[in-house]
UniProtKB/TrEMBL annotation:
One of its GO terms (molecular function) is glycosyltransferase activity. It comes from Faecalicatena acetigenes. This is Queuine tRNA-ribosyltransferase. The lineage of its organism: Bacteria, Bacillati, Bacillota, Clostridia, Lachnospirales. Homodimer. Within each dimer, one monomer is responsible for RNA recognition and catalysis, while the other monomer binds to the replacement base PreQ1. The gene is tgt. Zn(2+) binds at residues 309, 311, 314, 340.
Length: 376
């Protein structure tokens, strides 16, 4: 059940009540592809850094350890000791990212596993069955994420197939949720809008999938090579055609600036690997821009990554010490940077929610962007 609490311009402050707890939006979902955040971050850590939703990947968990194994162990929540919401990506993005290892047909996609080359088939029904075995809170519909430079003819055919697949996903999800042995019979289903950078295809697809009355709607196929200007243009065009009284999820985005801009356009769910990936390489986010802790200028810097930050890294350690850990290839350095970055993102989302509630989002966004544009 989604409640729209407040709007400030197009920005939405919402609340999604799920079987695994309430999600306050706008929200950033912390990405743990294989049921773990890369960088030695535990689920206890996630609780400490204000994580609301953990995101895992259907394809990767199907390949290893296997969704049947996760099911036998009580589902993903029990398996990874996480009692809050989990969203599972459908495997559709792997149709895009594993282009050299797959073949797309009407029934679904034939893969070769990126781990051992084993043949895999995944279609809408298989994706729903895997996600039901994982027992995530929110399941994503199985779609094709076409290349952002695909021509119009291919894009139209791809989007039409994604719509047919979405109808099959909904039918199968309803069937699975009605079975007595299903681990999470209240699993939610989000559909995905596609269409590349063609506004008319995007809008038409949004109108079609809105009619299916799903639990939420995602905008997919962005942040895959197109410019930021194109991404914002597409959001300006398509978000007004998605239901305002449902969650709006921009998949795989992005930088703090991307999130601030997308919130201003009506998006309230986000996920991205940037904070954890950048953290593992010593790049940390602050309110005055991004720092590279490998830089020599931090060798004698006894300040925390960011003054007044309450993350586990900033409460206890200096830039100089974390830099030493990174240079010495000690895992603790990577872990501390990831914890800081995820805390920074989760805190920024808190600030965004407060600003929308207070009717000051435009001012907050301008102030935040200006601050992060400064050099430290």
């Amino acid at each position: 059940m989604y409640e729209l609490i407040k709007t400030d311009g197009k920005a939405k402050r919402g609340r999604l009540v799920t079987v695994h707890g309430t999600i306050e939006t706008p929200v950033f979902m912390n990405v743990g592809t294989a049921a773990a955040i890369k960088g030695a971050v535990s689920t206890d850590d996630l609780r400490a850094i204000k994580t609301q939703v953990e995101l895992s990947n259907t394809y990767h968990l199907h390949v290893r350890p296997g969704d049947e194994i996760v099911r036998k162990l009580g589902g993903l929540h029990k398996f990874m000791n996480w009692d809050k919401p989990i969203l599972t990506d459908s495997g559709g993005f792997q149709v895009f990212s594993l282009a050299g290892l797959r073949k797309i047909k009407e029934e679904g996609v034939h893969f070769h596993s990126h781990i051992d080359g084993k043949k895999i088939f995944m279609g809408p029904e298989e994706s729903m069955q895997i996600q039901s075995n994982l027992a995530s809170t929110i399941a994503m519909a199985f779609d094709e994420c076409p290349s952002s430079v695909a021509d119009r003819s291919y894009m139209e055919k791809s989007v039409a197939r994604t719509t047919r697949w979405l109808k099959r996903c909904k039918k199968e999800m309803n069937r699975l949720n009605s079975l007595s042995g299903t681990l999470n019979s209240q699993q939610l289903l989000f559909g995905i809008n596609q269409g590349g950078i063609y506004e008319d295809i995007r809008i038409s697809h949004a109108q079609q999938i809105t009619e299916l009355n799903l639990d939420g709607y995602a905008v997919g196929g962005l942040a895959v090579g197109e410019s930021h200007e194109d991404m914002y243009r597409i959001l300006d065009a398509v978000v007004p055609y998605l239901p305002q009284n449902k969650p709006t999820y921009l998949m795989g985005v992005g930088t703090p600036a991307n999130i601030l801009e997308a919130v201003d356009r009506g998006v309230d769910f986000f996920d991205c690997v940037y904070p954890s990936r950048n953290g593992r390489h010593g790049h940390v986010y602050t309110n005055r821009g991004k720092l590279n802790l490998f830089n020599a200028k931090y060798e004698l810097d006894d300040r925390p990554i960011e003054e007044n930050c309450q993350c586990p890294a900033c409460r206890s350690y200096s830039r100089a010490y974390i830099r030493h850990l990174l240079k010495a290839k000690e895992m603790l350095g990577m872990r501390l940077c990831v914890l800081h970055n995820l805390y920074f993102y989760n805190t920024m989302m808190e600030e965004i929610r407060e600003a929308i509630e207070g009717g000051t989002y435009k001012e907050y966004k301008a102030r935040k962007l200006a601050g992060m544009g400064q050099k430290s």
